[in-house]
Design a protein that fits this description.
CATH topology of the largest domain: Chloramphenicol Acetyltransferase
Shape: globular
CATH superfamily of the largest domain: Chloramphenicol acetyltransferase-like domain
Radius of gyration: 27 Å
CATH architecture of the largest domain: 2-Layer Sandwich
Largest sheet: 8 strands, mixed
Strand content: 15-25%
Distance between the termini: 68 Å
Number of helices: 13
Length: 438
């Protein structure tokens, strides 16, 4: 009995996604709830689980295809579990002989019958067809054996960087992999001809280009950022803050904090609390424009920018103004972990009334962050470094951080923006203000 595999619900207002990668191929057995494909939406990556245990018999969509919620993308046969049909592999052999040798400009593994070329590279075609298009091209280009490389991707899957690292780390020819194109040259000169062309430029200092289609998430990020620039009257104001008091507080209480709450005391908790305090004095920073109306929020939902493998994502810490330091730190740590795993959901990133972006973790000294629509302001944190400052008439070294507040001048006046940033500065330089709501 065949069971259809449908595209699951992807989140509120999301009706379609892109089939990013097949994790199983026709003929392979799957367990119930085991992921068989990965979908990419405007905001997150979602794995499609098998509804039943059985054998994947059909792939009804190809990698790169746009698929709607509820669409059938595969079929699972429950009656042939453990029996792997030979047809897909035979089809792969035929496709291998007719595919473009460069492996570019095509959509491999659409239905299990159009796989990447394997005749020129001495690799098992089962291994090749389970790789993503980018990884598949890298395997063929660098002439490495994918079965000999340890993958660092999710579930041990190979990444393009794994392939490149393996190729660069070879001290000499890999057994059976490096000599393969030369061994086939006398018998099949036509198919072996491209191999020297791929290798020759490497020694002479090659100049290469690679065209990779933008992911759906990257397209959405690009569109939204450009819309923000086109719509908002953006302006950025700056200040610097002495981090001595926060650093001292963390050093004094970090062990007790971690012992009690099971999480490290970081800087972000202080800044979220400082923003919540400052937003009470300057509510327009936590507001938004809808049509000809200004919407003021009596809550603070902070979008925290975190880095994910496929781009920057901004999960939301909801009701941050009512949370404790421990609750804030636990929530942000969970977001960071799930962002790396690719398990954040669309609901995690829906909404948000204010954004904090910490470029300092990457070494940024100063930046002008872009507003995250429909929000009206974003706070940019940067790296901490010792700089000479004047204190009580004396030049002293202090751990300083530049702060940047980008805001929509249509809603927020310069005085309000500067006042807000000063309130944040005061709270960070004297954390006692956070306790007595001053």
């Amino acid at each position: 009995m065949a069971t259809d595999v449908e595209v699951p619900a992807l989140g509120e207002s999301i009706t379609e996604g892109t089939l990013a990668q097949w994790l199983k191929k026709p003929g392979e057995t799957v367990a119930a709830d085991e992921p068989i494909a990965s979908l990419e939406t405007d905001k997150v990556s979602v794995e499609v689980p098998s509804p039943v245990a059985g054998v994947l018999t059909e792939q009804l969509a190809g990698e790169g295809d746009t698929v709607a919620v509820g669409a059938v993308i595969a079929r699972i046969d429950q009656t042939t579990a453990g029996a792997a049909p030979a047809a897909p592999k035979a089809d792969a052999a035929v496709a291998a002989s007719t595919t473009n040798p460069a492996g570019a400009g095509e959509t491999p593994a659409l239905r299990g019958d159009a796989t990447a070329p394997v005749a020129e590279a001495e690799h098992d075609d089962d291994q090749i067809t389970t790789l993503s298009p980018a990884v598949r091209r890298a395997v063929l280009e660098y002439h490495v054996d994918p079965t000999s490389i340890r993958g660092t991707g999710k579930d041990g899957r190979l990444t393009k960087d794994d392939v490149i690292a393996a190729a660069q780390g070879k001290a000499g020819p890999t057994p059976a992999a490096a000599p393969a194109p030369q061994a086939k040259a006398p018998a099949a000169p036509a198919s072996a001809a491209p191999a020297p062309q791929a290798k020759a430029p490497a020694a002479a200092g090659e100049r290469k280009e690679e065209r990779v289609k933008m992911t759906r998430m990257r397209q959405t990020i690009a569109r939204r950022l450009k819309e923000a620039q086109n719509t908002a009257a953006m302006l950025t104001t700056f200040n610097d803050v002495d981090m001595s008091a926060v650093i001292d507080a963390r050093a004094r209480y970090k062990d007790l904090f971690e012992k009690k709450h099971g999480i490290r005391l970081g800087f972000m908790g202080f800044f979220v609390k400082a923003v919540a305090l400052a937003a009470k004095d300057v509510p327009s920073v936590n507001a938004s424009i809808e049509g000809e109306e200004i919407v003021y929020h009596d809550y603070l939902d902070v979008s925290v920018a975190v880095s994910a493998p496929k781009g920057l994502v901004v999960p939301v810490v909801r009701n941050a103004d009512r949370m404790s330091f421990a609750e804030i730190e636990k929530t942000i740590a969970d977001f960071g972990k799930r962002a790396k795993e690719g398990s954040l959901t669309a609901d995690d990133m829906a909404g948000g009334t204010f954004t904090i972006s910490n470029g300092g973790v990457f070494g940024s000294l100063l930046s002008t962050p872009i507003i995250n629509p429909p929000q009206s302001a974003v706070l940019g944190m940067h790296r901490i470094e010792e700089r000479p400052v004047v204190k009580d008439g004396q030049i002293v070294a202090r751990p300083m951080m530049y702060l940047a507040l980008s805001y929509d001048h249509r809603l927020i006046d310069g005085r309000e923006a500067v006042t807000f940033l000063v309130r944040v500065k005061e709270a960070i330089e004297d954390p006692t203000r956070l306790l007595i709501d001053l």
